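Morning, I've got a small favour to ask if you have a moment. I owe you a coffee for this, so here goes:
>
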Amino acid sequence: MRVPNVRVIDADGAMLGVLPTREAQRMAQQQGLDLVEVSPHAEPPVCKIMDFGKFRYDEGMKRKQARKTQQRQVIKEVKFHANVDAHDLETKLRKTREFLAEGNKVKLTLAYRGRENAHKDLGFELMQRIIKELESVAVCEQQPRLLGRLLGCLLAPRPQKPSKGGGGGGGKRPEPAAAAPKPPAEAPVSQPPAPAAPPAAPPAAPVPPPAAPGQPDAVAPA
């Protein structure tokens, strides 16, 4: 780098501010990393401390993934003649439908041979009939055009319309079912009265304590 100062971003993404270029390079070397210029047209240029080898690998993987996900549309060509028979024409139509179902455009080419050049209107009629036959799956991007002995047109897949069903919320919601009527409450059952308790027994007479040995028994007074 020939610029005296650069704006430095460290490996963690934190902005370190504007530093002399030599100091920024020394910081990157101390961490075992590289000082990579990520925005050369800024004033001053913006550099980031990173592993340059890993950075190149990640960028390559991103480009490869982008190429995989990018949808490539190919133009297929189906050729036939003005006096094509019905069986051959049906085969050409089936092949054209397959190309359209794969998302490809289809170029229809009709070639005039010999005395067919004197009846070019027959070729136009056949081409319009084919377009009409395929209108459910294709749109005509280029109308039939005559170039010398060749009559051609270009078909593209017809965009699919989104289905009206599903959870769009446009239909009426079903009304909740009416609750079932509750059964009438049963009357309480009366219980028979409990039997009366028997009368309490009279208290027992006190028992005198036993007499000591050698003493006469005590006689209760009359």
About this structure: The beta strands are 5-9, 15-20, 34-39, 46-50, 75-81, 105-111, 138-147, 150-157. The CA atoms of residues 141 and 201 lie 119 Å apart.
